[in-house]
TrEMBL record:
It is found in: Membrane. InterPro entries: LexA/Signal_pep-like_sf, Peptidase_S26, Peptidase_S26B. One of its GO terms (cellular component) is membrane. One of its GO terms (molecular function) is serine-type endopeptidase activity. This is S26 family signal peptidase.
Length: 223
């Protein structure tokens, strides 16, 4: 019974170990985020799992906007893609691209792309900039977050991680977990998904074991 229990729990433990190792390398926890909107399409689609790192983690340290010289290319365009969490009630973290930094009191529309603006500094709530921060946008949105009212100017301390690459469709698992936690709570979700992972791993181990056993018997007969 102890051996069977260990075999069932091994896959879940392996998944947790991989997550811990990735987090240690990335310097962020959790080391991935699930994408729930299409605002960064086509490079990042709904249901993708995005691997992230700490913003100061070598060799990906620092934050570089799309308009800055020598900006790195990430997800098909220039500039870092970051996860930021505005302190607004009920708003989820946002995965968008940095356009450029701004300083307190600046009329940042002078440096903005007119195609991504809806109005001028007199009509945009975050202009002049009330504090130092960043202008951001979703690649598929066609307008700065601060112009569209999606988010205020993003303070640096709101930015929790920098995106490195995306794994297509793998994020649906994370979305499902988050939905289950919101519905039934953390503990029942952990027990349920842990049991499912263990059972799936146990069934897989059993099937592979039977295949290996049959192959051994067949080899013995052939000898």
């Amino acid at each position: 019974m102890t051996r069977n229990l260990s075999g069932l729990l091994a896959p879940a433990a392996a998944v947790l170990l991989v997550a811990v190792v990735v987090a240690a390398v990335a310097g962020a926890w959790p080391p991935f985020v699930a994408v729930e909107s299409g605002s960064m399409a086509p490079e990042v689609e709904r249901g993708d799992l995005v691997i992230v790192t700490s913003t100061d983690r070598f060799p990906w340290g620092g934050l570089v906007g799309a308009a800055e010289p020598g900006a790195p290319t990430r997800f098909g365009s220039a500039g870092d893609v970051v996860v930021f969490d505005p302190p607004s009630d009920g708003q989820k973290p946002i995965l968008h691209r940095i356009a450029f930094p701004v300083s307190a009191g600046e009329d940042w529309t002078d440096r903005a792309d007119p195609a991504l603006l809806d109005g001028d500094c007199a009509t945009i709530a975050g202009c002049p900039a009330p504090y130092d921060g960043y202008i951001t946008y979703g690649d598929a949105n066609g307008e700065y977050d601060q112009s569209a009212g999606i988010a205020p100017i993003v303070r640096e301390d709101w930015i929790t991680a920098k995106a490195l690459f995306a794994v297509p469709n793998l994020g649906w698992v994370r979305v499902g977990v988050d939905a289950a936690i919101a519905r039934v709570g953390l503990l029942p979700t952990a027990v349920g998904f842990g049991g499912l992972a263990a059972a799936t791993g146990g069934v897989g181990a059993l099937l592979f074991g039977r295949i290996a056993a049959r192959r051994t018997v067949r080899d013995d007969r052939e000898r």
